[in-house]
Amino acid sequence: MTEAILLVGGKGTRLRPLTVNTPKPMVPAAGVPFLTHQLARARAAGVTHVVLATSYLAEVFEPHFGDGSDLGLDLEYVTEDEPLGTGGAIRNVASRLRSGPDEPVLIFNGDILTGLDIRALVSTHTDTGADVSLHLTRVEDPRAYGLVPTDSTGRVTAFLEKPQTPEEIVTDQINAGAYVFRRALIDSIPAGRPVSVERETFPGLLAEGAHLQGMVDSTYWLDLGTPQAFVRGSADLVLGRAPSPAVPGRCGDRLVLPTARVAPDAKLTGGTVVGEDAVIGEGARVTGSTVLSGAVIEAGAVVTDSMIGAGARVGARSVLTGAVIGDGASVGADNELRAGVRVWCNTTLPDGCVRFSSDM
Ligand code: GDD
Ligand code: MG
């Protein structure tokens, strides 16, 4: 097992405004573009050749990762002219694969933070002689995912992407976004048109009687598709709850990159990350949050479970909980922003213009 495909071409719509200027896999988590963690974990599991299937904002990947040698990888890039969907993207990179027809090829969704034992997934695949093997995890509410029921031997019996009706919710096991494909099956996906691996390829293979094998585990797993999940994942990397060899210089329950400036009495806790050249003012408290490069948190601000975009500003004494501030945005002093609030890139909120009152 030496090669992998990483699907990194999605638009990251649910993560906007973080993905307005940056594709989802390049948004920093624990101080480095999220993709770095996935690449480092793949390398640690023995993968040496990786093909990135890019589409949205494709041009930013190669200048950052180059030929992959910094990570000990041989990295290639393939960009779709039009988005081809997950299956189309896999098919579109087939010419770059070096494996023989029966050899296993790993495929990863580019937004999953997980402690998956990659070698164990490959062993499952080889031991069972499956055509495709899928990492599965259990979640409380499976509706936003692909449901994957299995029989008593772990063999997949159906694949139901994003179930619409209560009758379709037949299991709490979901597709965790990591597969091993027998290489020949990748070549059998139709070329040159959009294909969803979840809605078309997997159900089609099952109908043809192909052997799809599931491997369920209960290791750390998070889809970083929403701002809340992304901030949580970044904090979990810093806290060591999510494993990655690529977290730079962790220090207790916070990560402050070398060129950041933090006032001596500021409090940073809960896996908070402070990016390059960011500034944290006197008495500010930042918990479980990500402050991207060049952002400024002014004196006395209280920031919890929030994402502060590159070059953004949070004014003095403002209180942010579960908020997302786009790159270059400016939140004036004495504002109170609560869960789910998203301030778009480069916009300005004047001083004291947003408040919450319990007696309304
Ligand atoms: N190259 C390329 N081209 N990549 C794409 C495209 C495309 O047209 N569309 C999506 N991707 C990439 C995304 O960048 C992401 O890494 C991955 O494919 C999955 O897309 P998401 O948009 O994140 O899908 P999802 O989270 O709604 O659902 C998927 O992941 C779930 C687990 O988190 C499905 O695979 C579900 O079945 C699964 O449960
Ligand atoms: Mg996703």
Please specify the SSE layout and strand pairing.
Blueprint: E1 3-7, E2 28-29, E3 32-33, H1 34-44, E4 49-54, H2 61-65, E5 74-79, H3 85-92, E6 104-109, E7 112-114, H4 118-128, E8 132-138, E9 146-147, E10 160-161, E11 173-182, H5 183-187, H6 197-207, E12 212-216, E13 221-223, H7 227-239, E14 254-256, E15 261-262, E16 267-269, E17 272-274, E18 279-280, E19 285-287, E20 290-291, E21 296-297, E22 302-304, E23 307-308, E24 313-314, E25 319-321, E26 324-325, E27 330-331, E28 336-337, E29 342-343, E30 348-349
Parallel strand pairs: 1-4, 1-6, 4-5, 8-12, 14-17, 15-18, 16-19, 17-20, 18-21, 19-22, 20-23, 21-24, 22-25, 23-26, 24-27, 25-28, 26-29, 27-30
Antiparallel strand pairs: 2-3, 6-11, 7-13, 8-11, 9-10
Helix pairs in contact: 3-6
Bound molecules: guanosine-5'-diphosphate-alpha-D-mannose (GDD) and magnesium ion.
Residues 7-10, 53-55, 80, 83-86, 89, 109-112, 145-146, 161, 174-175, 177, 198, 223, 225 line the site of guanosine-5'-diphosphate-alpha-D-mannose.
